[in-house]
Write a structure and sequence with these properties.
The complex is a heterodimer. Chain A is of the alpha+beta class. Chain A has six helices and five strands. Chain A has helices at 2-56, 61-75, 78-86, 95-116, 178-192, 197-213; strands at 124-133, 136-144, 152-160, 166-173, 176-177. In chain A, a hairpin with a 2-residue loop joins strand 1 (124-133) and strand 2 (136-144). The termini of chain B are far apart. The model of chain B is unreliable at 1-45 (pLDDT under 50). Chain B is globular, with a radius of gyration of 19 Å. Chain B is an all-alpha fold. In chain B, a hairpin with a 3-residue loop joins strand 1 (164-166) and strand 2. The chains are: A alpha+beta, B mainly alpha. The interface between A and B is large, with 42 and 41 residues.
Protein backbone atom coordinates (compact mmCIF):
# COMPACT_ATOMS: atom_id res chain seq x y z
CA UNK A 1 0.00 0.00 0.00
CA UNK A 2 2.85 2.31 0.99
CA UNK A 3 4.58 1.51 -2.31
CA UNK A 4 1.47 2.40 -4.27
CA UNK A 5 1.24 5.71 -2.37
CA UNK A 6 4.88 6.55 -3.10
CA UNK A 7 4.46 5.51 -6.74
CA UNK A 8 1.40 7.76 -6.99
CA UNK A 9 3.33 10.67 -5.50
CA UNK A 10 6.19 10.11 -7.92
CA UNK A 11 3.73 9.97 -10.80
CA UNK A 12 2.06 13.20 -9.72
CA UNK A 13 5.45 14.83 -9.24
CA UNK A 14 6.53 13.63 -12.69
CA UNK A 15 3.39 14.85 -14.39
CA UNK A 16 3.39 18.23 -12.70
CA UNK A 17 7.15 18.49 -12.85
CA UNK A 18 7.09 18.16 -16.60
CA UNK A 19 3.95 20.18 -17.00
CA UNK A 20 5.05 23.16 -14.96
CA UNK A 21 7.82 24.44 -17.22
CA UNK A 22 5.55 23.97 -20.21
CA UNK A 23 2.70 25.89 -18.66
CA UNK A 24 5.11 28.58 -17.58
CA UNK A 25 6.57 28.75 -21.09
CA UNK A 26 3.26 28.80 -22.92
CA UNK A 27 2.21 32.34 -21.97
CA UNK A 28 5.69 33.67 -22.64
CA UNK A 29 5.71 31.98 -26.06
CA UNK A 30 2.31 33.44 -26.84
CA UNK A 31 3.49 36.88 -25.75
CA UNK A 32 6.67 36.52 -27.81
CA UNK A 33 4.76 35.40 -30.90
CA UNK A 34 2.24 38.18 -30.45
CA UNK A 35 5.03 40.74 -30.25
CA UNK A 36 6.72 39.17 -33.24
CA UNK A 37 3.45 39.35 -35.22
CA UNK A 38 3.19 43.04 -34.40
CA UNK A 39 6.74 43.65 -35.60
CA UNK A 40 6.06 41.68 -38.78
CA UNK A 41 2.99 43.82 -39.51
CA UNK A 42 5.05 46.96 -38.93
CA UNK A 43 7.76 45.70 -41.27
CA UNK A 44 5.32 44.84 -44.07
CA UNK A 45 3.52 48.17 -43.61
CA UNK A 46 6.81 50.06 -43.95
CA UNK A 47 7.87 47.97 -46.94
CA UNK A 48 4.57 48.37 -48.81
CA UNK A 49 4.42 52.09 -48.08
CA UNK A 50 7.87 52.56 -49.56
CA UNK A 51 7.09 50.29 -52.53
CA UNK A 52 3.86 52.14 -53.34
CA UNK A 53 5.70 55.46 -53.16
CA UNK A 54 8.19 54.17 -55.73
CA UNK A 55 5.41 52.92 -58.01
CA UNK A 56 3.42 56.14 -57.72
CA UNK A 57 6.43 58.31 -58.51
CA UNK A 58 7.08 59.06 -62.14
CA UNK A 59 10.41 57.33 -62.35
CA UNK A 60 12.40 56.13 -65.31
CA UNK A 61 12.85 52.36 -65.52
CA UNK A 62 16.43 52.73 -64.31
CA UNK A 63 15.48 54.88 -61.32
CA UNK A 64 12.68 52.48 -60.41
CA UNK A 65 15.09 49.54 -60.50
CA UNK A 66 17.58 51.35 -58.29
CA UNK A 67 14.85 52.16 -55.80
CA UNK A 68 13.64 48.55 -55.84
CA UNK A 69 17.19 47.32 -55.36
CA UNK A 70 17.43 49.38 -52.23
CA UNK A 71 14.18 47.90 -50.93
CA UNK A 72 15.33 44.37 -51.74
CA UNK A 73 18.60 44.84 -49.88
CA UNK A 74 16.88 46.31 -46.87
CA UNK A 75 13.98 43.90 -46.45
CA UNK A 76 14.84 40.63 -48.19
CA UNK A 77 17.33 37.94 -47.22
CA UNK A 78 18.46 37.46 -50.82
CA UNK A 79 20.90 34.68 -49.95
CA UNK A 80 18.17 32.53 -48.41
CA UNK A 81 15.68 33.13 -51.20
CA UNK A 82 18.31 32.42 -53.88
CA UNK A 83 19.23 29.12 -52.25
CA UNK A 84 15.58 28.17 -51.95
CA UNK A 85 15.06 28.74 -55.65
CA UNK A 86 17.92 26.35 -56.39
CA UNK A 87 16.06 23.57 -54.58
CA UNK A 88 17.96 20.38 -53.84
CA UNK A 89 20.57 21.37 -56.42
CA UNK A 90 21.98 23.91 -53.95
CA UNK A 91 23.75 21.10 -52.08
CA UNK A 92 25.80 20.07 -55.12
CA UNK A 93 27.06 23.57 -55.95
CA UNK A 94 30.35 25.05 -54.73
CA UNK A 95 30.29 28.07 -52.39
CA UNK A 96 31.90 30.21 -55.07
CA UNK A 97 29.24 29.31 -57.63
CA UNK A 98 26.52 29.94 -55.06
CA UNK A 99 27.83 33.46 -54.55
CA UNK A 100 27.86 34.09 -58.31
CA UNK A 101 24.35 32.71 -58.60
CA UNK A 102 23.12 34.87 -55.70
CA UNK A 103 24.47 38.01 -57.34
CA UNK A 104 22.87 37.14 -60.70
CA UNK A 105 19.64 36.22 -58.91
CA UNK A 106 19.51 39.53 -57.04
CA UNK A 107 20.03 41.45 -60.25
CA UNK A 108 17.34 39.50 -62.13
CA UNK A 109 14.92 39.70 -59.20
CA UNK A 110 15.05 43.48 -59.19
CA UNK A 111 14.50 43.57 -62.96
CA UNK A 112 11.59 41.14 -62.77
CA UNK A 113 9.66 42.83 -59.98
CA UNK A 114 10.48 46.42 -60.86
CA UNK A 115 8.90 45.67 -64.26
CA UNK A 116 6.14 43.33 -63.09
CA UNK A 117 4.88 45.87 -60.56
CA UNK A 118 5.36 48.94 -62.74
CA UNK A 119 1.76 48.85 -63.96
CA UNK A 120 0.31 48.97 -60.45
CA UNK A 121 0.42 52.66 -59.66
CA UNK A 122 -3.02 53.50 -58.28
CA UNK A 123 -3.43 50.53 -55.97
CA UNK A 124 -3.33 50.50 -52.20
CA UNK A 125 -1.99 47.74 -50.01
CA UNK A 126 -3.98 47.28 -46.83
CA UNK A 127 -1.96 45.35 -44.27
CA UNK A 128 -4.03 43.17 -41.97
CA UNK A 129 -3.23 40.79 -39.16
CA UNK A 130 -0.31 38.43 -38.77
CA UNK A 131 0.18 35.05 -37.17
CA UNK A 132 3.46 33.71 -35.87
CA UNK A 133 4.86 30.28 -35.19
CA UNK A 134 8.46 29.86 -34.12
CA UNK A 135 10.44 32.21 -36.31
CA UNK A 136 7.88 32.19 -39.13
CA UNK A 137 5.31 34.95 -39.52
CA UNK A 138 2.51 35.17 -42.07
CA UNK A 139 1.18 38.68 -42.61
CA UNK A 140 -2.13 39.06 -44.46
CA UNK A 141 -2.83 42.00 -46.72
CA UNK A 142 -5.05 43.04 -49.59
CA UNK A 143 -4.41 45.01 -52.74
CA UNK A 144 -7.29 47.45 -53.24
CA UNK A 145 -7.69 48.57 -56.83
CA UNK A 146 -8.73 52.01 -58.02
CA UNK A 147 -11.07 50.32 -60.50
CA UNK A 148 -14.10 48.16 -59.67
CA UNK A 149 -11.89 45.09 -59.59
CA UNK A 150 -12.32 43.11 -56.37
CA UNK A 151 -9.40 43.25 -53.93
CA UNK A 152 -6.68 40.63 -54.19
CA UNK A 153 -5.32 38.78 -51.16
CA UNK A 154 -1.61 38.72 -50.44
CA UNK A 155 0.37 36.95 -47.74
CA UNK A 156 3.88 37.93 -46.71
CA UNK A 157 6.17 35.28 -45.23
CA UNK A 158 8.49 37.05 -42.80
CA UNK A 159 11.26 35.26 -40.92
CA UNK A 160 12.94 36.21 -37.68
CA UNK A 161 16.69 36.04 -38.14
CA UNK A 162 19.08 34.76 -35.48
CA UNK A 163 19.93 38.33 -34.45
CA UNK A 164 16.24 39.11 -33.88
CA UNK A 165 15.74 41.22 -37.00
CA UNK A 166 12.97 40.38 -39.45
CA UNK A 167 13.39 39.70 -43.14
CA UNK A 168 11.00 38.94 -45.95
CA UNK A 169 11.26 35.48 -47.48
CA UNK A 170 8.39 35.22 -49.93
CA UNK A 171 5.13 36.84 -51.07
CA UNK A 172 1.98 34.95 -51.99
CA UNK A 173 -0.60 36.44 -54.36
CA UNK A 174 -3.83 34.50 -54.82
CA UNK A 175 -2.16 31.37 -53.55
CA UNK A 176 0.94 31.68 -55.70
CA UNK A 177 4.27 32.04 -53.90
CA UNK A 178 6.70 34.08 -55.97
CA UNK A 179 9.90 32.32 -54.84
CA UNK A 180 8.22 28.98 -55.54
CA UNK A 181 7.48 30.19 -59.07
CA UNK A 182 11.15 31.06 -59.59
CA UNK A 183 12.14 27.68 -58.16
CA UNK A 184 9.87 25.93 -60.67
CA UNK A 185 11.43 27.92 -63.52
CA UNK A 186 15.00 27.27 -62.37
CA UNK A 187 14.45 23.58 -61.86
CA UNK A 188 13.42 23.35 -65.52
CA UNK A 189 16.55 25.18 -66.63
CA UNK A 190 18.77 22.98 -64.46
CA UNK A 191 17.01 19.81 -65.61
CA UNK A 192 17.41 20.61 -69.28
CA UNK A 193 21.11 21.42 -68.70
CA UNK A 194 21.96 18.38 -66.58
CA UNK A 195 22.21 20.44 -63.39
CA UNK A 196 24.81 22.85 -64.77
CA UNK A 197 24.75 26.01 -62.62
CA UNK A 198 26.57 27.94 -65.37
CA UNK A 199 23.52 27.48 -67.60
CA UNK A 200 21.27 28.90 -64.89
CA UNK A 201 23.54 31.88 -64.25
CA UNK A 202 23.63 32.54 -68.00
CA UNK A 203 19.83 32.25 -68.09
CA UNK A 204 19.58 34.96 -65.43
CA UNK A 205 22.15 37.22 -67.08
CA UNK A 206 20.33 36.84 -70.41
CA UNK A 207 17.12 37.85 -68.69
CA UNK A 208 18.77 40.96 -67.29
CA UNK A 209 20.22 41.79 -70.72
CA UNK A 210 16.81 41.31 -72.38
CA UNK A 211 15.22 43.64 -69.86
CA UNK A 212 17.94 46.23 -70.53
CA UNK A 213 17.34 46.00 -74.27
CA UNK A 214 13.64 46.67 -73.90
CA UNK A 215 13.91 49.44 -71.35
CA UNK A 216 11.01 51.81 -71.53
CA UNK A 217 10.85 55.24 -70.05
CA UNK A 218 7.69 55.34 -67.98
CA UNK A 219 7.54 59.08 -67.88
CA UNK A 220 8.73 61.80 -70.20
CA UNK A 221 9.55 63.90 -67.19
CA UNK A 222 13.11 63.86 -66.02
CA UNK A 223 13.05 61.25 -63.29
CA UNK A 224 14.84 61.67 -60.02
CA UNK A 225 17.48 59.05 -59.43
CA UNK A 226 17.31 57.44 -56.03
CA UNK A 227 20.83 56.55 -55.01
CA UNK A 228 21.91 53.38 -53.32
CA UNK A 229 22.80 53.71 -49.71
CA UNK B 1 -31.97 12.77 -78.11
CA UNK B 2 -29.49 9.90 -77.74
CA UNK B 3 -27.06 9.64 -74.88
CA UNK B 4 -24.04 10.08 -77.15
CA UNK B 5 -25.58 13.22 -78.56
CA UNK B 6 -26.12 14.63 -75.10
CA UNK B 7 -22.60 13.73 -74.11
CA UNK B 8 -21.16 15.25 -77.25
CA UNK B 9 -23.17 18.37 -76.64
CA UNK B 10 -21.86 18.58 -73.10
CA UNK B 11 -18.26 17.97 -74.06
CA UNK B 12 -18.50 20.58 -76.80
CA UNK B 13 -20.01 23.06 -74.42
CA UNK B 14 -17.37 22.19 -71.86
CA UNK B 15 -14.61 22.97 -74.32
CA UNK B 16 -16.12 26.33 -74.99
CA UNK B 17 -16.89 27.03 -71.41
CA UNK B 18 -13.29 26.70 -70.47
CA UNK B 19 -13.06 28.67 -73.64
CA UNK B 20 -9.58 29.37 -74.39
CA UNK B 21 -8.39 31.01 -71.44
CA UNK B 22 -10.79 30.32 -68.66
CA UNK B 23 -8.47 27.69 -67.31
CA UNK B 24 -5.12 29.43 -67.56
CA UNK B 25 -6.59 32.68 -66.45
CA UNK B 26 -8.37 31.15 -63.57
CA UNK B 27 -5.04 30.19 -62.16
CA UNK B 28 -3.69 33.69 -62.45
CA UNK B 29 -6.59 35.43 -60.81
CA UNK B 30 -8.69 33.43 -58.55
CA UNK B 31 -11.14 32.60 -61.24
CA UNK B 32 -8.13 32.62 -61.68
CA UNK B 33 -8.45 21.61 -46.66
CA UNK B 34 -6.74 20.80 -44.46
CA UNK B 35 -6.93 17.07 -43.73
CA UNK B 36 -4.69 14.09 -43.96
CA UNK B 37 -6.54 13.04 -47.08
CA UNK B 38 -5.61 16.21 -48.84
CA UNK B 39 -1.95 15.86 -48.06
CA UNK B 40 -1.52 13.17 -50.69
CA UNK B 41 -3.31 15.30 -53.24
CA UNK B 42 -1.25 18.31 -52.23
CA UNK B 43 1.99 16.39 -52.30
CA UNK B 44 1.55 15.37 -55.90
CA UNK B 45 0.64 18.91 -56.85
CA UNK B 46 3.21 21.08 -55.17
CA UNK B 47 6.28 19.11 -54.14
CA UNK B 48 6.98 17.47 -57.46
CA UNK B 49 6.70 19.03 -60.90
CA UNK B 50 4.76 16.14 -62.38
CA UNK B 51 5.17 17.06 -66.04
CA UNK B 52 6.29 13.94 -67.93
CA UNK B 53 4.82 15.25 -71.21
CA UNK B 54 6.66 18.55 -71.02
CA UNK B 55 7.86 18.50 -74.64
CA UNK B 56 4.38 17.89 -75.97
CA UNK B 57 2.89 20.34 -73.47
CA UNK B 58 5.26 23.07 -74.61
CA UNK B 59 4.15 22.57 -78.21
CA UNK B 60 0.50 22.85 -77.12
CA UNK B 61 1.36 25.92 -75.10
CA UNK B 62 3.04 27.53 -78.12
CA UNK B 63 -0.08 26.99 -80.22
CA UNK B 64 -2.23 28.34 -77.40
CA UNK B 65 -0.11 31.49 -77.16
CA UNK B 66 -0.35 32.11 -80.90
CA UNK B 67 -4.16 31.82 -80.81
CA UNK B 68 -4.20 34.19 -77.84
CA UNK B 69 -1.98 36.81 -79.43
CA UNK B 70 -3.64 36.67 -82.84
CA UNK B 71 -7.30 36.23 -81.93
CA UNK B 72 -8.34 36.32 -78.29
CA UNK B 73 -6.25 39.15 -76.85
CA UNK B 74 -7.16 41.63 -79.63
CA UNK B 75 -10.86 40.82 -79.16
CA UNK B 76 -10.47 41.24 -75.39
CA UNK B 77 -8.81 44.63 -75.90
CA UNK B 78 -11.71 45.70 -78.11
CA UNK B 79 -14.15 44.40 -75.49
CA UNK B 80 -12.67 46.75 -72.87
CA UNK B 81 -14.18 49.65 -74.83
CA UNK B 82 -17.44 48.65 -73.17
CA UNK B 83 -17.80 50.75 -69.99
CA UNK B 84 -16.52 49.04 -66.86
CA UNK B 85 -19.86 48.95 -64.99
CA UNK B 86 -21.36 46.95 -67.88
CA UNK B 87 -18.43 44.53 -67.81
CA UNK B 88 -18.85 44.10 -64.05
CA UNK B 89 -22.46 43.07 -64.69
CA UNK B 90 -21.28 40.44 -67.20
CA UNK B 91 -18.83 39.08 -64.62
CA UNK B 92 -21.57 39.03 -61.96
CA UNK B 93 -23.98 37.12 -64.20
CA UNK B 94 -21.49 34.38 -65.06
CA UNK B 95 -20.32 34.11 -61.46
CA UNK B 96 -23.90 33.83 -60.29
CA UNK B 97 -24.96 31.19 -62.77
CA UNK B 98 -21.93 28.99 -62.13
CA UNK B 99 -22.48 29.06 -58.37
CA UNK B 100 -24.49 25.78 -58.44
CA UNK B 101 -21.14 24.09 -59.12
CA UNK B 102 -19.77 25.58 -55.91
CA UNK B 103 -22.95 24.70 -54.05
CA UNK B 104 -22.82 21.01 -55.02
CA UNK B 105 -19.12 20.72 -54.25
CA UNK B 106 -19.46 22.48 -50.89
CA UNK B 107 -21.95 19.78 -50.02
CA UNK B 108 -19.87 16.90 -51.39
CA UNK B 109 -16.94 18.10 -49.29
CA UNK B 110 -19.17 18.13 -46.23
CA UNK B 111 -18.54 21.81 -45.69
CA UNK B 112 -21.93 22.97 -44.48
CA UNK B 113 -20.83 26.48 -43.49
CA UNK B 114 -19.57 27.16 -46.98
CA UNK B 115 -22.65 25.49 -48.46
CA UNK B 116 -24.79 27.85 -46.39
CA UNK B 117 -22.78 30.86 -47.61
CA UNK B 118 -23.11 29.84 -51.26
CA UNK B 119 -26.84 29.16 -50.91
CA UNK B 120 -27.39 32.57 -49.27
CA UNK B 121 -25.36 34.31 -51.94
CA UNK B 122 -27.30 32.57 -54.68
CA UNK B 123 -30.70 33.51 -53.23
CA UNK B 124 -29.75 37.09 -52.44
CA UNK B 125 -28.21 37.74 -55.87
CA UNK B 126 -31.10 35.95 -57.58
CA UNK B 127 -33.66 38.20 -55.90
CA UNK B 128 -32.15 41.49 -54.70
CA UNK B 129 -29.43 41.19 -57.33
CA UNK B 130 -31.97 40.84 -60.16
CA UNK B 131 -31.03 37.36 -61.41
CA UNK B 132 -27.34 37.88 -60.75
CA UNK B 133 -26.90 41.22 -62.47
CA UNK B 134 -25.65 42.74 -59.23
CA UNK B 135 -23.52 41.16 -56.52
CA UNK B 136 -25.58 42.38 -53.58
CA UNK B 137 -24.37 39.52 -51.38
CA UNK B 138 -20.77 40.74 -51.43
CA UNK B 139 -21.93 44.24 -50.54
CA UNK B 140 -23.72 42.66 -47.57
CA UNK B 141 -20.42 41.11 -46.48
CA UNK B 142 -21.15 37.59 -47.71
CA UNK B 143 -17.97 36.84 -49.60
CA UNK B 144 -17.82 34.51 -52.58
CA UNK B 145 -15.67 31.42 -52.81
CA UNK B 146 -15.32 28.75 -55.44
CA UNK B 147 -15.36 24.98 -55.30
CA UNK B 148 -15.24 22.45 -58.09
CA UNK B 149 -15.14 18.70 -58.56
CA UNK B 150 -11.35 18.70 -58.95
CA UNK B 151 -11.09 20.13 -55.45
CA UNK B 152 -13.64 17.64 -54.16
CA UNK B 153 -11.73 14.71 -55.65
CA UNK B 154 -8.54 16.09 -54.06
CA UNK B 155 -10.27 16.27 -50.69
CA UNK B 156 -11.19 12.60 -51.10
CA UNK B 157 -7.52 11.85 -51.72
CA UNK B 158 -7.50 11.35 -55.49
CA UNK B 159 -4.10 12.18 -57.01
CA UNK B 160 -4.08 14.86 -59.70
CA UNK B 161 -2.04 12.88 -62.21
CA UNK B 162 0.44 14.50 -64.59
CA UNK B 163 0.29 18.10 -65.68
CA UNK B 164 -1.20 18.52 -69.14
CA UNK B 165 -1.45 21.63 -71.29
CA UNK B 166 -4.24 21.33 -73.83
CA UNK B 167 -4.54 23.81 -76.67
CA UNK B 168 -7.59 26.02 -76.10
CA UNK B 169 -8.48 24.40 -72.76
CA UNK B 170 -5.22 25.39 -71.11
CA UNK B 171 -3.45 23.81 -68.13
CA UNK B 172 -5.09 20.86 -66.48
CA UNK B 173 -4.61 17.37 -65.07
CA UNK B 174 -6.57 14.14 -65.60
CA UNK B 175 -8.35 14.73 -62.28
CA UNK B 176 -9.26 18.25 -63.30
CA UNK B 177 -10.62 17.07 -66.67
CA UNK B 178 -12.85 14.53 -64.95
CA UNK B 179 -13.92 17.21 -62.48
CA UNK B 180 -14.85 19.65 -65.23
CA UNK B 181 -16.93 17.06 -67.04
CA UNK B 182 -18.83 16.38 -63.84
CA UNK B 183 -19.19 20.06 -62.94
CA UNK B 184 -20.66 20.88 -66.29
CA UNK B 185 -23.85 19.10 -65.31
CA UNK B 186 -24.47 21.90 -62.82
CA UNK B 187 -23.86 24.86 -65.12
CA UNK B 188 -27.14 26.19 -66.53
CA UNK B 189 -25.42 27.26 -69.76
CA UNK B 190 -24.97 23.58 -70.63
CA UNK B 191 -28.75 23.24 -70.80
CA UNK B 192 -29.29 25.98 -73.34
CA UNK B 193 -30.86 24.09 -76.25
CA UNK B 194 -29.74 26.45 -78.96
CA UNK B 195 -26.15 25.71 -79.94
CA UNK B 196 -25.52 29.26 -81.13
CA UNK B 197 -26.81 30.63 -77.85
CA UNK B 198 -24.55 28.31 -75.91
CA UNK B 199 -21.52 29.20 -78.01
CA UNK B 200 -22.26 32.89 -77.65
CA UNK B 201 -22.67 32.66 -73.87
CA UNK B 202 -19.42 30.75 -73.46
CA UNK B 203 -17.61 33.04 -75.84
CA UNK B 204 -18.69 36.16 -73.92
CA UNK B 205 -17.61 34.52 -70.67
CA UNK B 206 -14.17 33.71 -72.06
CA UNK B 207 -13.59 37.15 -73.56
CA UNK B 208 -14.81 38.87 -70.40
CA UNK B 209 -12.42 36.78 -68.33
CA UNK B 210 -9.53 37.47 -70.68
CA UNK B 211 -10.30 41.20 -70.64
CA UNK B 212 -10.33 41.25 -66.83
CA UNK B 213 -6.80 39.87 -66.83
CA UNK B 214 -5.19 41.82 -69.64
CA UNK B 215 -2.74 43.76 -67.47
CA UNK B 216 -1.91 40.84 -65.19
CA UNK B 217 -1.09 38.48 -68.03
CA UNK B 218 0.88 41.14 -69.88
CA UNK B 219 2.94 41.85 -66.77
CA UNK B 220 3.67 38.18 -66.18
CA UNK B 221 4.60 37.51 -69.78
CA UNK B 222 6.80 40.58 -69.89
CA UNK B 223 8.73 39.60 -66.80
CA UNK B 224 8.88 35.80 -66.84
CA UNK B 225 12.00 34.14 -68.19
CA UNK B 226 10.00 30.99 -69.00
CA UNK B 227 6.30 31.72 -69.47
CA UNK B 228 5.41 28.03 -69.76
CA UNK B 229 7.07 27.25 -66.42
CA UNK B 230 5.46 30.30 -64.80
CA UNK B 231 1.98 29.24 -65.94
CA UNK B 232 2.59 25.69 -64.74
CA UNK B 233 3.74 26.99 -61.36
CA UNK B 234 0.72 29.31 -61.06
CA UNK B 235 -1.65 26.51 -61.98
CA UNK B 236 -0.15 23.98 -59.54
CA UNK B 237 0.09 26.44 -56.66
CA UNK B 238 -3.32 27.97 -57.23
CA UNK B 239 -4.98 24.54 -57.31
CA UNK B 240 -3.44 23.66 -53.94
CA UNK B 241 -4.54 27.04 -52.56
CA UNK B 242 -8.11 26.44 -53.76
CA UNK B 243 -8.13 22.91 -52.33
CA UNK B 244 -7.04 24.43 -49.02
CA UNK B 245 -9.97 26.87 -49.28
CA UNK B 246 -7.62 29.82 -49.53
CA UNK B 247 -6.03 29.16 -46.15
CA UNK B 248 -2.29 29.57 -45.82
CA UNK B 249 -1.09 27.74 -42.75
CA UNK B 250 2.35 27.11 -41.35
CA UNK B 251 1.91 23.40 -42.05
CA UNK B 252 1.70 24.10 -45.79
CA UNK B 253 4.96 26.05 -45.94
CA UNK B 254 7.95 24.32 -47.51
CA UNK B 255 10.82 23.30 -45.27
CA UNK B 256 13.49 25.99 -45.46
CA UNK B 257 15.54 25.21 -42.36
CA UNK B 258 18.21 23.52 -44.49
CA UNK B 259 18.85 26.87 -46.19
CA UNK B 260 20.54 28.21 -43.06
CA UNK B 261 22.98 25.29 -42.78
Amino acid sequence: MKNIFIASLLLVAFVFGSALPASADAPSNIAKESKQSERAVQMVTALTTEAMKILAAELSTEAREIAFGELVDRYLNVKRVARFTLGRSARKISDEDKLRFEEAFRHALIKIYANRLAGYTDEKVIVGKAKSKGRNNLVNSQIAFATERPPVDMVWWVIEEKDGTLSLFDVQILGVWMAQEQRDIFSGVLKSNKGDIEALIKHLLDQVADADDTKEVVSDKKAPVISNR
Amino acid sequence: MGMSSVLRKRVFALCLSAAFFAAPLAMVSSAMVSSAMVSSARADTIDVINDPFERLNRISFGAHQVIDKVVVRPIAIGYTLIPEPARVIVTNVFDHWTSPVTLVNDLLQGNLDRFDTTAKRFLINLTAGLFGLFDVATEMGIEAHSEDMDQTLAVYGAPSGPYIFLPILGPTTPRHIIGRLADFNFVPIAYIDDTNGRVLANGINAINLRANLLDDIDNIEKSSSDIYASYRSFYRQNRVFEIDNGETSFDNLPDIDFLDE
